[in-house]
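Standup notes
- HV: blocked on the assembly model, inputs below
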Amino acid sequence: MSTRVPVTATINNEDVTFLCEPRQSLLEVLREELGLTGAKEGCNNGNCGACAVIMNGALVNSCLVLGVEAHGATITTIEGIAPREGLHPLQQKFIEHAALQCGVCTPGFIVAARALLDKNPNPTEHEVRFWLAGNLCRCTGYDKIVRAVLDAAATLRAQAASAAGDEVQ
Amino acid sequence: MQAFEYVAPRSLDEATHVLAHVGAEARCLGGGTDLIAQMREGRRSARVVVDIKRIPELDALKFDPIHGLTLGAAVPCSRIHSHGAVAAAFPGLIDAVSLIGGIAIQNRASLGGNICTASPAGDSLPALLVHNAHVLLASAQGTRRLPLSAFFVGPGKTVLRPDELVVQIELPAPPAGFGAAYLRFTPRNEMDIAVVGVGAAVVLENGLITQARVALGAVAPTPILVPEAAEALVGKAPSPEVFADAAAAAQRAAQPITDMRGTAEQRRHLVGVLTWRALQRAVERARVSQLPQPTAQ
Ligand SMILES: Cc1cc2nc3c(=O)[nH]c(=O)nc-3n(C[C@H](O)[C@H](O)[C@H](O)COP(=O)(O)OP(=O)(O)OC[C@H]3O[C@@H](n4cnc5c(N)ncnc54)[C@H](O)[C@@H]3O)c2cc1C
Ligand code: FES
Ligand code: FES
Protein backbone atom coordinates (compact mmCIF):
# COMPACT_ATOMS: atom_id res chain seq x y z
CA MET A 1 0.00 0.00 0.00
CA SER A 2 1.26 3.43 -0.83
CA THR A 3 1.36 6.36 1.55
CA ARG A 4 -1.81 8.18 2.34
CA VAL A 5 -1.71 11.92 1.97
CA PRO A 6 -3.81 14.51 3.81
CA VAL A 7 -6.32 16.42 1.71
CA THR A 8 -8.41 19.40 2.83
CA ALA A 9 -11.53 20.42 0.96
CA THR A 10 -14.89 22.09 1.52
CA ILE A 11 -17.60 19.51 0.96
CA ASN A 12 -21.25 20.56 1.23
CA ASN A 13 -20.19 23.73 3.06
CA GLU A 14 -18.13 21.87 5.63
CA ASP A 15 -14.35 21.97 5.85
CA VAL A 16 -13.09 18.41 5.88
CA THR A 17 -9.65 16.87 6.04
CA PHE A 18 -9.16 13.28 5.05
CA LEU A 19 -6.34 10.89 4.24
CA CYS A 20 -6.31 9.21 0.88
CA GLU A 21 -4.12 7.22 -1.41
CA PRO A 22 -3.30 8.99 -4.68
CA ARG A 23 -4.84 6.10 -6.61
CA GLN A 24 -8.25 6.53 -4.97
CA SER A 25 -10.84 8.37 -7.03
CA LEU A 26 -12.85 11.18 -5.52
CA LEU A 27 -15.84 8.84 -5.80
CA GLU A 28 -14.11 6.19 -3.67
CA VAL A 29 -13.08 8.80 -1.14
CA LEU A 30 -16.60 10.20 -0.87
CA ARG A 31 -18.18 6.79 -0.49
CA GLU A 32 -15.56 4.86 1.47
CA GLU A 33 -13.71 7.46 3.55
CA LEU A 34 -16.37 10.12 4.10
CA GLY A 35 -19.54 8.03 4.23
CA LEU A 36 -21.15 10.12 1.48
CA THR A 37 -22.71 7.23 -0.44
CA GLY A 38 -25.16 9.31 -2.49
CA ALA A 39 -22.90 9.49 -5.53
CA LYS A 40 -23.07 6.09 -7.20
CA GLU A 41 -20.60 4.00 -9.12
CA GLY A 42 -22.24 3.02 -12.39
CA CYS A 43 -19.56 2.57 -15.02
CA ASN A 44 -16.43 3.89 -13.29
CA ASN A 45 -15.23 5.28 -16.63
CA GLY A 46 -17.02 8.56 -17.25
CA ASN A 47 -19.92 7.34 -19.33
CA CYS A 48 -22.94 7.17 -17.00
CA GLY A 49 -22.87 10.28 -14.79
CA ALA A 50 -24.11 8.42 -11.67
CA CYS A 51 -21.08 9.73 -9.77
CA ALA A 52 -21.60 13.39 -10.72
CA VAL A 53 -20.60 16.11 -8.25
CA ILE A 54 -20.05 19.85 -8.59
CA MET A 55 -16.40 20.75 -8.06
CA ASN A 56 -15.36 24.42 -7.97
CA GLY A 57 -18.63 25.28 -9.71
CA ALA A 58 -18.24 22.73 -12.52
CA LEU A 59 -20.10 19.48 -13.04
CA VAL A 60 -17.61 16.58 -13.05
CA ASN A 61 -17.70 12.80 -12.86
CA SER A 62 -16.07 11.95 -9.53
CA CYS A 63 -14.91 8.56 -10.85
CA LEU A 64 -12.56 10.48 -13.18
CA VAL A 65 -11.13 12.77 -10.50
CA LEU A 66 -8.44 11.69 -8.05
CA GLY A 67 -9.23 12.26 -4.39
CA VAL A 68 -5.93 14.14 -4.03
CA GLU A 69 -7.05 16.57 -6.75
CA ALA A 70 -9.79 17.75 -4.40
CA HIS A 71 -7.21 19.53 -2.24
CA GLY A 72 -8.41 23.10 -1.77
CA ALA A 73 -11.58 22.49 -3.78
CA THR A 74 -15.20 23.29 -3.01
CA ILE A 75 -17.45 20.32 -3.70
CA THR A 76 -21.20 19.81 -3.66
CA THR A 77 -22.53 16.26 -3.64
CA ILE A 78 -26.15 15.07 -3.72
CA GLU A 79 -26.08 15.20 0.10
CA GLY A 80 -25.58 18.96 -0.13
CA ILE A 81 -28.50 19.69 -2.44
CA ALA A 82 -31.45 19.63 -0.03
CA PRO A 83 -31.98 22.56 2.33
CA ARG A 84 -31.87 21.89 6.09
CA GLU A 85 -35.62 21.28 6.08
CA GLY A 86 -37.46 19.47 3.31
CA LEU A 87 -36.37 18.80 -0.25
CA HIS A 88 -34.87 20.82 -3.07
CA PRO A 89 -37.44 21.53 -5.83
CA LEU A 90 -35.53 19.17 -8.12
CA GLN A 91 -35.94 16.36 -5.61
CA GLN A 92 -39.60 17.22 -5.05
CA LYS A 93 -40.32 17.30 -8.79
CA PHE A 94 -38.51 14.00 -9.41
CA ILE A 95 -40.95 12.43 -6.93
CA GLU A 96 -44.04 14.17 -8.36
CA HIS A 97 -43.17 13.25 -11.96
CA ALA A 98 -42.11 9.70 -11.05
CA ALA A 99 -38.76 10.50 -12.65
CA LEU A 100 -37.08 7.51 -11.02
CA GLN A 101 -37.60 3.81 -10.70
CA CYS A 102 -34.58 1.96 -9.30
CA GLY A 103 -33.02 5.31 -8.37
CA VAL A 104 -29.38 4.48 -9.06
CA CYS A 105 -29.06 7.24 -11.64
CA THR A 106 -31.07 9.80 -9.65
CA PRO A 107 -28.32 11.44 -7.56
CA GLY A 108 -26.30 12.01 -10.72
CA PHE A 109 -29.26 13.46 -12.61
CA ILE A 110 -30.19 15.78 -9.77
CA VAL A 111 -26.64 17.05 -9.31
CA ALA A 112 -26.26 17.53 -13.07
CA ALA A 113 -29.62 19.31 -13.31
CA ARG A 114 -28.69 21.53 -10.37
CA ALA A 115 -25.46 22.52 -12.19
CA LEU A 116 -27.55 23.37 -15.27
CA LEU A 117 -30.10 25.47 -13.37
CA ASP A 118 -27.33 27.34 -11.52
CA LYS A 119 -26.05 28.41 -14.93
CA ASN A 120 -29.28 28.68 -16.87
CA PRO A 121 -32.46 29.10 -14.80
CA ASN A 122 -34.70 28.94 -17.86
CA PRO A 123 -33.47 26.12 -20.12
CA THR A 124 -35.40 24.85 -23.12
CA GLU A 125 -36.30 21.17 -23.33
CA HIS A 126 -33.54 20.80 -25.92
CA GLU A 127 -30.99 22.38 -23.58
CA VAL A 128 -32.04 20.06 -20.75
CA ARG A 129 -31.72 16.98 -22.95
CA PHE A 130 -28.36 18.11 -24.28
CA TRP A 131 -27.01 18.90 -20.80
CA LEU A 132 -28.13 15.55 -19.41
CA ALA A 133 -26.66 13.53 -22.32
CA GLY A 134 -23.83 12.44 -20.00
CA ASN A 135 -26.24 10.76 -17.58
CA LEU A 136 -27.64 7.32 -18.32
CA CYS A 137 -30.91 5.87 -17.01
CA ARG A 138 -31.93 2.30 -17.74
CA CYS A 139 -35.43 2.60 -16.26
CA THR A 140 -37.38 5.78 -16.95
CA GLY A 141 -36.92 6.44 -20.65
CA TYR A 142 -35.72 9.97 -19.74
CA ASP A 143 -38.94 11.79 -20.59
CA LYS A 144 -40.14 12.04 -16.99
CA ILE A 145 -36.71 13.24 -15.93
CA VAL A 146 -36.78 16.02 -18.49
CA ARG A 147 -40.32 17.06 -17.39
CA ALA A 148 -39.24 17.06 -13.74
CA VAL A 149 -36.24 19.27 -14.46
CA LEU A 150 -38.31 21.75 -16.50
CA ASP A 151 -40.95 21.87 -13.76
CA ALA A 152 -38.31 22.36 -11.04
CA ALA A 153 -36.79 25.17 -13.09
CA ALA A 154 -40.20 26.88 -13.23
CA THR A 155 -40.62 26.48 -9.46
CA LEU A 156 -37.17 27.91 -8.79
CA ARG A 157 -37.87 30.88 -11.07
CA ALA A 158 -41.14 31.55 -9.28
CA GLN A 159 -39.37 31.35 -5.89
CA ALA A 160 -36.66 33.72 -7.09
CA ALA A 161 -39.25 36.16 -8.43
CA SER A 162 -41.23 36.19 -5.19
CA ALA A 163 -38.01 36.60 -3.14
CA ALA A 164 -37.03 39.54 -5.35
CA GLY A 165 -40.55 40.96 -4.88
CA ASP A 166 -40.19 40.67 -1.09
CA GLU A 167 -36.90 42.55 -1.23
CA VAL A 168 -38.42 45.39 -3.21
CA GLN A 169 -41.20 45.84 -0.62
CA MET B 1 -5.70 0.82 -9.57
CA GLN B 2 -1.98 0.36 -9.04
CA ALA B 3 -0.42 2.64 -6.45
CA PHE B 4 1.49 5.73 -7.58
CA GLU B 5 2.89 8.92 -6.20
CA TYR B 6 1.07 12.19 -6.99
CA VAL B 7 2.78 15.54 -7.50
CA ALA B 8 1.24 18.85 -8.53
CA PRO B 9 4.07 21.18 -9.60
CA ARG B 10 3.41 24.93 -9.52
CA SER B 11 5.87 25.82 -12.28
CA LEU B 12 7.00 24.49 -15.63
CA ASP B 13 10.57 24.16 -14.32
CA GLU B 14 9.44 22.02 -11.45
CA ALA B 15 7.38 19.82 -13.79
CA THR B 16 10.13 19.30 -16.37
CA HIS B 17 12.56 18.41 -13.59
CA VAL B 18 10.22 15.73 -12.29
CA LEU B 19 9.85 14.36 -15.83
CA ALA B 20 13.63 14.42 -16.37
CA HIS B 21 14.16 12.63 -13.09
CA VAL B 22 11.41 9.99 -13.31
CA GLY B 23 11.45 9.51 -17.10
CA ALA B 24 9.13 6.98 -18.69
CA GLU B 25 7.55 6.05 -15.35
CA ALA B 26 5.98 9.50 -15.03
CA ARG B 27 2.63 10.44 -16.60
CA CYS B 28 1.09 13.86 -16.97
CA LEU B 29 -2.44 14.26 -15.65
CA GLY B 30 -4.60 16.82 -17.41
CA GLY B 31 -8.34 16.35 -17.01
CA GLY B 32 -7.85 12.62 -16.42
CA THR B 33 -10.76 11.67 -18.69
CA ASP B 34 -8.53 9.28 -20.62
CA LEU B 35 -5.75 8.61 -18.14
CA ILE B 36 -7.68 7.70 -14.99
CA ALA B 37 -9.86 5.10 -16.69
CA GLN B 38 -6.83 3.71 -18.56
CA MET B 39 -4.83 3.31 -15.35
CA ARG B 40 -7.83 1.70 -13.66
CA GLU B 41 -8.09 -0.84 -16.47
CA GLY B 42 -4.34 -1.47 -16.31
CA ARG B 43 -3.83 -0.18 -19.85
CA ARG B 44 -1.42 2.47 -18.57
CA SER B 45 0.71 2.56 -15.47
CA ALA B 46 2.77 5.21 -13.76
CA ARG B 47 5.06 5.42 -10.77
CA VAL B 48 4.52 9.17 -10.55
CA VAL B 49 1.46 11.06 -11.76
CA VAL B 50 2.28 14.69 -12.50
CA ASP B 51 -0.81 16.88 -12.23
CA ILE B 52 -0.11 19.68 -14.71
CA LYS B 53 -3.23 21.78 -14.07
CA ARG B 54 -1.56 24.04 -11.51
CA ILE B 55 1.22 25.15 -13.86
CA PRO B 56 0.33 28.73 -14.90
CA GLU B 57 1.35 28.36 -18.59
CA LEU B 58 -0.73 25.21 -18.98
CA ASP B 59 -3.79 26.76 -17.36
CA ALA B 60 -3.71 29.99 -19.42
CA LEU B 61 -5.94 30.94 -22.33
CA LYS B 62 -4.73 34.05 -24.16
CA PHE B 63 -6.35 35.54 -27.23
CA ASP B 64 -5.80 38.67 -29.22
CA PRO B 65 -6.91 39.38 -32.77
CA ILE B 66 -3.33 40.06 -33.95
CA HIS B 67 -1.32 37.22 -32.42
CA GLY B 68 -4.07 34.66 -32.23
CA LEU B 69 -4.80 32.08 -29.58
CA THR B 70 -2.42 30.56 -27.06
CA LEU B 71 -4.17 27.68 -25.41
CA GLY B 72 -2.62 26.17 -22.28
CA ALA B 73 -2.45 22.40 -22.79
CA ALA B 74 -4.51 21.73 -19.63
CA VAL B 75 -7.35 24.21 -20.24
CA PRO B 76 -10.65 22.29 -20.25
CA CYS B 77 -12.93 22.34 -23.31
CA SER B 78 -15.70 24.23 -21.50
CA ARG B 79 -13.41 27.20 -20.89
CA ILE B 80 -12.67 27.32 -24.61
CA HIS B 81 -16.24 27.22 -25.92
CA SER B 82 -17.53 29.68 -23.32
CA HIS B 83 -14.99 32.31 -24.44
CA GLY B 84 -16.96 34.56 -26.81
CA ALA B 85 -14.07 36.05 -28.81
CA VAL B 86 -12.37 32.68 -29.22
CA ALA B 87 -15.65 31.09 -30.31
CA ALA B 88 -16.10 33.78 -32.97
CA ALA B 89 -12.54 33.53 -34.30
CA PHE B 90 -12.07 29.73 -34.31
CA PRO B 91 -15.39 28.15 -35.28
CA GLY B 92 -13.88 24.82 -36.32
CA LEU B 93 -12.21 24.44 -32.95
CA ILE B 94 -15.45 25.30 -31.17
CA ASP B 95 -17.39 22.69 -33.18
CA ALA B 96 -14.91 20.09 -31.95
CA VAL B 97 -14.62 21.02 -28.27
CA SER B 98 -18.42 21.19 -28.00
CA LEU B 99 -18.61 17.59 -29.23
CA ILE B 100 -16.10 15.99 -26.86
CA GLY B 101 -18.06 13.88 -24.35
CA GLY B 102 -20.84 15.55 -22.38
CA ILE B 103 -20.79 18.56 -20.05
CA ALA B 104 -19.00 16.77 -17.19
CA ILE B 105 -16.30 15.56 -19.59
CA GLN B 106 -15.91 19.00 -21.21
CA ASN B 107 -15.39 20.53 -17.76
CA ARG B 108 -12.24 18.41 -17.38
CA ALA B 109 -11.01 17.25 -20.81
CA SER B 110 -8.13 19.30 -22.23
CA LEU B 111 -6.76 19.60 -25.75
CA GLY B 112 -3.29 18.68 -24.47
CA GLY B 113 -4.87 15.40 -23.37
CA ASN B 114 -6.78 14.98 -26.62
CA ILE B 115 -3.67 15.36 -28.79
CA CYS B 116 -1.41 13.31 -26.48
CA THR B 117 -3.92 10.45 -26.40
CA ALA B 118 -3.51 10.68 -30.19
CA SER B 119 -6.57 8.63 -31.02
CA PRO B 120 -7.06 8.78 -34.80
CA ALA B 121 -10.69 9.67 -33.91
CA GLY B 122 -9.84 12.46 -31.43
CA ASP B 123 -12.27 15.25 -32.31
CA SER B 124 -10.05 18.27 -31.77
CA LEU B 125 -7.28 16.94 -34.00
CA PRO B 126 -8.68 17.65 -37.51
CA ALA B 127 -10.10 20.95 -36.23
CA LEU B 128 -6.74 22.08 -34.85
CA LEU B 129 -5.03 21.00 -38.08
CA VAL B 130 -7.28 23.18 -40.25
CA HIS B 131 -6.70 26.09 -37.86
CA ASN B 132 -2.98 25.59 -38.58
CA ALA B 133 -2.08 24.82 -34.96
CA HIS B 134 1.46 24.57 -33.60
CA VAL B 135 2.49 22.96 -30.35
CA LEU B 136 5.09 24.10 -27.86
CA LEU B 137 6.84 21.24 -26.06
CA ALA B 138 9.11 21.63 -23.03
CA SER B 139 11.66 19.50 -21.21
CA ALA B 140 14.45 20.25 -18.76
CA GLN B 141 16.65 20.71 -21.85
CA GLY B 142 14.56 23.48 -23.35
CA THR B 143 11.58 23.96 -25.61
CA ARG B 144 10.70 23.08 -29.19
CA ARG B 145 7.85 24.27 -31.35
CA LEU B 146 6.39 22.24 -34.19
CA PRO B 147 3.40 22.22 -36.47
CA LEU B 148 0.71 19.93 -35.09
CA SER B 149 0.83 18.03 -38.39
CA ALA B 150 4.32 16.80 -37.39
CA PHE B 151 3.21 15.71 -33.89
CA PHE B 152 1.35 12.46 -34.61
CA VAL B 153 3.14 9.23 -35.41
CA GLY B 154 0.46 6.54 -35.19
CA PRO B 155 -2.54 5.47 -33.09
CA GLY B 156 -1.64 6.55 -29.54
CA LYS B 157 1.84 7.59 -30.67
CA THR B 158 3.35 11.07 -30.91
CA VAL B 159 6.82 12.59 -31.16
CA LEU B 160 6.64 13.59 -27.48
CA ARG B 161 9.61 12.21 -25.51
CA PRO B 162 9.03 10.76 -22.02
CA ASP B 163 10.82 13.76 -20.47
CA GLU B 164 8.67 16.27 -22.39
CA LEU B 165 5.24 17.77 -21.95
CA VAL B 166 2.99 19.88 -24.14
CA VAL B 167 2.93 23.43 -22.79
CA GLN B 168 0.52 25.07 -25.18
CA ILE B 169 -1.25 24.88 -28.49
CA GLU B 170 -0.93 27.99 -30.66
CA LEU B 171 -3.43 29.04 -33.34
CA PRO B 172 -2.61 31.97 -35.61
CA ALA B 173 -5.18 34.75 -35.83
CA PRO B 174 -7.49 33.98 -38.73
CA PRO B 175 -7.24 36.37 -41.70
CA ALA B 176 -10.22 38.39 -42.96
CA GLY B 177 -12.73 36.22 -44.80
CA PHE B 178 -11.87 33.11 -42.79
CA GLY B 179 -14.36 30.37 -42.00
CA ALA B 180 -13.95 26.84 -40.61
CA ALA B 181 -16.02 23.88 -39.48
CA TYR B 182 -15.62 20.43 -37.98
CA LEU B 183 -18.19 17.69 -38.45
CA ARG B 184 -18.21 14.09 -37.36
CA PHE B 185 -20.44 11.11 -37.93
CA THR B 186 -21.54 9.15 -34.85
CA PRO B 187 -24.47 6.77 -34.38
CA ARG B 188 -25.49 8.72 -31.24
CA ASN B 189 -25.59 12.54 -31.16
CA GLU B 190 -23.59 12.96 -27.96
CA MET B 191 -21.13 10.85 -25.99
CA ASP B 192 -19.86 8.79 -28.90
CA ILE B 193 -16.61 8.33 -30.83
CA ALA B 194 -16.30 9.58 -34.40
CA VAL B 195 -16.67 7.01 -37.18
CA VAL B 196 -15.27 9.75 -39.40
CA GLY B 197 -14.41 13.37 -38.58
CA VAL B 198 -13.69 16.13 -41.11
CA GLY B 199 -12.31 19.62 -40.55
CA ALA B 200 -12.38 22.30 -43.24
CA ALA B 201 -11.16 25.89 -43.38
CA VAL B 202 -11.27 28.46 -46.19
CA VAL B 203 -10.34 32.08 -46.78
CA LEU B 204 -12.62 33.98 -49.18
CA GLU B 205 -11.42 37.09 -51.01
CA ASN B 206 -13.62 38.81 -53.59
CA GLY B 207 -15.71 35.68 -53.96
CA LEU B 208 -12.73 33.36 -54.53
CA ILE B 209 -11.21 30.79 -52.21
CA THR B 210 -7.62 31.93 -51.70
CA GLN B 211 -6.60 29.47 -48.96
CA ALA B 212 -8.04 26.14 -47.87
CA ARG B 213 -7.28 23.28 -45.53
CA VAL B 214 -9.06 19.95 -45.19
CA ALA B 215 -8.22 17.40 -42.48
CA LEU B 216 -9.63 13.95 -41.82
CA GLY B 217 -9.98 11.95 -38.61
CA ALA B 218 -10.53 8.21 -38.03
CA VAL B 219 -9.59 7.17 -41.57
CA ALA B 220 -5.83 6.69 -41.16
CA PRO B 221 -3.39 5.80 -38.34
CA THR B 222 -3.16 9.53 -37.56
CA PRO B 223 -5.36 12.49 -38.44
CA ILE B 224 -4.28 13.72 -41.87
CA LEU B 225 -4.24 16.96 -43.82
CA VAL B 226 -5.28 16.57 -47.47
CA PRO B 227 -3.32 19.08 -49.58
CA GLU B 228 -4.97 17.68 -52.77
CA ALA B 229 -8.37 18.75 -51.46
CA ALA B 230 -6.99 22.23 -50.75
CA GLU B 231 -5.58 22.40 -54.30
CA ALA B 232 -8.99 21.59 -55.73
CA LEU B 233 -10.41 24.63 -53.94
CA VAL B 234 -7.82 27.39 -54.17
CA GLY B 235 -8.41 29.96 -56.91
CA LYS B 236 -12.03 28.87 -57.42
CA ALA B 237 -15.36 30.32 -56.43
CA PRO B 238 -17.26 28.05 -54.02
CA SER B 239 -19.68 25.84 -55.96
CA PRO B 240 -21.11 22.33 -55.75
CA GLU B 241 -18.67 21.18 -58.47
CA VAL B 242 -15.66 22.53 -56.60
CA PHE B 243 -16.82 20.97 -53.32
CA ALA B 244 -17.31 17.66 -55.16
CA ASP B 245 -13.73 17.78 -56.49
CA ALA B 246 -12.39 18.46 -52.99
CA ALA B 247 -14.55 15.70 -51.51
CA ALA B 248 -13.27 13.23 -54.12
CA ALA B 249 -9.68 14.22 -53.31
CA ALA B 250 -10.38 13.64 -49.59
CA GLN B 251 -11.85 10.21 -50.39
CA ARG B 252 -8.71 9.29 -52.35
CA ALA B 253 -6.48 10.36 -49.45
CA ALA B 254 -8.43 8.38 -46.83
CA GLN B 255 -7.11 4.94 -45.88
CA PRO B 256 -10.02 3.69 -43.77
CA ILE B 257 -10.19 0.33 -42.05
CA THR B 258 -13.15 -1.83 -41.05
CA ASP B 259 -13.76 -2.14 -37.33
CA MET B 260 -16.65 -2.30 -34.87
CA ARG B 261 -17.60 1.32 -35.59
CA GLY B 262 -17.94 1.03 -39.33
CA THR B 263 -16.70 -0.55 -42.54
CA ALA B 264 -13.98 0.92 -44.74
CA GLU B 265 -16.58 1.41 -47.46
CA GLN B 266 -18.95 3.34 -45.19
CA ARG B 267 -16.08 5.46 -43.93
CA ARG B 268 -14.95 6.34 -47.42
CA HIS B 269 -18.51 7.35 -48.29
CA LEU B 270 -18.75 9.47 -45.14
CA VAL B 271 -15.49 11.25 -45.94
CA GLY B 272 -17.07 12.49 -49.15
CA VAL B 273 -20.33 13.61 -47.54
CA LEU B 274 -18.72 15.25 -44.53
CA THR B 275 -16.01 17.01 -46.55
CA TRP B 276 -18.70 18.55 -48.73
CA ARG B 277 -20.80 19.64 -45.73
CA ALA B 278 -17.85 20.94 -43.72
CA LEU B 279 -16.73 23.03 -46.70
CA GLN B 280 -20.23 24.37 -47.17
CA ARG B 281 -20.41 25.38 -43.53
CA ALA B 282 -16.89 26.87 -43.57
CA VAL B 283 -17.80 28.97 -46.62
CA GLU B 284 -21.05 30.15 -45.00
CA ARG B 285 -19.09 31.22 -41.95
CA ALA B 286 -16.45 32.92 -44.08
CA ARG B 287 -19.22 34.95 -45.75
CA VAL B 288 -20.72 35.92 -42.40
CA SER B 289 -17.28 36.96 -41.13
CA GLN B 290 -17.02 39.38 -44.08
CA LEU B 291 -20.25 41.18 -43.19
CA PRO B 292 -19.72 44.46 -41.34
CA GLN B 293 -19.20 43.49 -37.70
CA PRO B 294 -20.63 45.37 -34.73
CA THR B 295 -17.78 47.42 -33.26
CA ALA B 296 -15.90 45.37 -30.70
CA GLN B 297 -15.58 46.74 -27.20
C1 LIG C 1 -17.36 9.54 -21.50
C2 LIG C 1 -16.23 10.03 -22.38
C3 LIG C 1 -16.53 10.60 -23.60
C4 LIG C 1 -15.51 11.04 -24.44
N1 LIG C 1 -15.84 11.60 -25.63
C5 LIG C 1 -14.88 12.01 -26.48
C6 LIG C 1 -15.21 12.59 -27.73
O1 LIG C 1 -16.38 12.74 -28.07
N2 LIG C 1 -14.19 12.98 -28.55
C7 LIG C 1 -12.89 12.84 -28.19
O2 LIG C 1 -12.01 13.23 -28.96
N3 LIG C 1 -12.53 12.31 -27.00
C8 LIG C 1 -13.50 11.89 -26.14
N4 LIG C 1 -13.16 11.33 -24.93
C9 LIG C 1 -11.75 11.13 -24.60
C10 LIG C 1 -11.13 12.24 -23.73
O3 LIG C 1 -12.10 12.93 -22.98
C11 LIG C 1 -10.34 13.25 -24.57
O4 LIG C 1 -9.32 12.58 -25.26
C12 LIG C 1 -9.74 14.37 -23.70
O5 LIG C 1 -9.43 15.46 -24.52
C13 LIG C 1 -8.52 13.97 -22.90
O6 LIG C 1 -8.07 15.09 -22.17
P1 LIG C 1 -7.68 15.01 -20.61
O7 LIG C 1 -7.26 16.37 -20.23
O8 LIG C 1 -8.78 14.41 -19.83
O9 LIG C 1 -6.45 14.02 -20.72
P2 LIG C 1 -5.78 13.07 -19.62
O10 LIG C 1 -6.64 11.89 -19.40
O11 LIG C 1 -5.38 13.85 -18.44
O12 LIG C 1 -4.47 12.66 -20.43
C14 LIG C 1 -4.54 11.89 -21.60
C15 LIG C 1 -3.12 11.44 -22.00
O13 LIG C 1 -2.35 12.55 -22.41
C16 LIG C 1 -1.24 12.75 -21.56
N5 LIG C 1 -1.16 14.20 -21.37
C17 LIG C 1 -2.19 15.03 -21.04
N6 LIG C 1 -1.78 16.31 -21.08
C18 LIG C 1 -0.48 16.31 -21.42
C19 LIG C 1 0.50 17.33 -21.63
N7 LIG C 1 0.19 18.63 -21.49
N8 LIG C 1 1.75 16.97 -21.98
C20 LIG C 1 2.06 15.65 -22.13
N9 LIG C 1 1.19 14.64 -21.96
C21 LIG C 1 -0.07 14.96 -21.61
C22 LIG C 1 -1.53 11.97 -20.31
O14 LIG C 1 -0.35 11.54 -19.68
C23 LIG C 1 -2.34 10.82 -20.86
O15 LIG C 1 -1.52 9.83 -21.40
C24 LIG C 1 -14.17 10.90 -24.05
C25 LIG C 1 -13.87 10.34 -22.80
C26 LIG C 1 -14.89 9.91 -21.96
C27 LIG C 1 -14.53 9.31 -20.64
S1 FES D 1 -19.47 6.04 -12.42
FE1 FES D 1 -18.60 7.92 -12.99
S2 FES D 1 -19.49 8.29 -14.87
FE2 FES D 1 -20.22 6.32 -14.44
S1 FES E 1 -34.12 5.00 -12.38
FE1 FES E 1 -33.04 3.16 -12.68
S2 FES E 1 -31.35 3.83 -13.85
FE2 FES E 1 -32.56 5.58 -13.77
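- HV (later): unblocked. The first helix of chain A runs from residue 26 to 33. The mean pLDDT of chain A is 96.
- Next: hand off to the docking folks.
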